[in-house]
């Protein structure tokens, strides 16, 4: 007599395998970090200090904003990207440490997404948005593209 046991378990196995991909792990923080460099208008490289006497270099995407890409296909996009990068560099220049909160994995391996706060509590993503140097971005959907109409 054949058993139907494996067939009955198949949906359960498939569901359990898919669950980790659907669940997002979030580290609330705060995690102290030193900025190593500004990559572009919405990404920085930091030396994060998640535990005493431990540090890790990681790329951090600022949560909630998308700025034009430095390698945009049009001059307008490249100029806007440089303006966003320069503004972020200016904000970060006067701070020695930042705080990362609500930290989660990014869609690109090796990069995280986080809320970033400067020493004075300023959120650089919010300042960039207020200055018109980027667009709100949830991590899904179309990205900010100034070259779309050119």
Automatic annotation (TrEMBL):
PROSITE patterns the record matches: TNASE_3 (PS50830), TONB_DEPENDENT_REC_1 (PS00430)
Record's keyword annotation contains Signal: yes
Keywords per UniProt: Signal
InterPro entries the UniProt entry points to: SNase_OB-fold_sf (IPR035437), Staphylococal_nuclease_OB-fold (IPR016071), TonB_box_CS (IPR010916)
Domain TNase-like: 29-150
Keyword Transmembrane assigned: no
Signal peptide start and end residues: 1-23
Superkingdom assignment: Bacteria
Protein name as annotated: Thermonuclease family protein
């Amino acid at each position: 007599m054949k058993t139907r046991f494996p067939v009955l378990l198949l949906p359960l196995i498939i569901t359990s395998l898919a669950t980790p991909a659907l669940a997002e792990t979030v580290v609330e923080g705060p995690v102290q970090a030193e900025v190593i460099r500004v990559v572009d208008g919405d990404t920085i490289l930091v030396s994060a200090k998640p535990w005493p006497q431990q540090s890790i270099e990681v790329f951090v995407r600022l949560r909630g904003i998308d700025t034009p890409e430095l390698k945009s296909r049009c001059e307008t996009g490249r100029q806007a990207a440089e303006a966003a990068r320069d503004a972020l560099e200016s904000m970060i220049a006067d701070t020695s440490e930042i705080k990362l909160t609500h930290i989660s994995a990014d869609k690109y391996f090796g990069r995280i997404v986080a809320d970033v706060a400067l020493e004075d509590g300023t959120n650089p993503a919010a300042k960039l948005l207020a200055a018109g140097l980027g667009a709100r971005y949830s991590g899904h959907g179309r990205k900010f593209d100034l070259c779309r109409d050119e």
